[in-house]
Target: Vacuolar protein sorting-associated protein 16 homolog
Amino acid sequence: MVGDVPESIQFVLDEDSYLVPELHSVCIFSCSTHEFLHEVPAASKEIFKIASIAPGVLLLEAQKEYEKESQKADEYLREIQELGQLTQAVQQCIEAAGHEYQPDMWKSLLRAASFGKCFLDRFPSDSFVRMCQDLHVLNAIRDYHIGIPLTYSQHKQLTIQVLLDRLVLRIPCHPDSLLECEPYSGDQVPLLLKMKRSKLVLSKAIESGDTDLVFTVLLHLKNELNQGDFIS
Model:
């Protein structure tokens, strides 16, 4: 593998393979394997490189020591706070979690981020909540029963709407559970309309409290359903 630096890296493949370029990465397919090659993201590099003293590393260690009820947790936390890097530490753990494939690892990073947030007065929780939702979606679709091994970067580029459209075509039973990851009922409505879930879409529109959205759904259902089904 070559890049914009003089050095190169060699990877030995045991069988004939095909390379498919992806966003910031390359997929390697063979008759028996599906591998994924990409540059280690900056946040992951900072946290997991040998002898790193990045704030995210200290926060991760602080949370682990806290679970052991060790005094070292306070020492690590105090060091981060004295350097004024607690916000950065939380952000690093959240970002690194997004690029991890093993649930145990991204859960550990999110626990560390949640632990650090407790000591911040005004840390916006949106990024943390959204990352939790995104990782639960990614974990579900990476399961071999579904078999869509998206990365976090691919997921954000593709958007949840496009992903759900694909799932509707492939696996009718799974989109409902993924839709529940969307916290605002109104954002679920367009996808439910595509799925032709008339009763549920009207319920979600009413739940949103948006009268314009309710009217739009009713108009759509009137055009799509016969008179008997619409009245019922």
The chain has four domains: 1-39, 43-123, 124-183, 186-232.
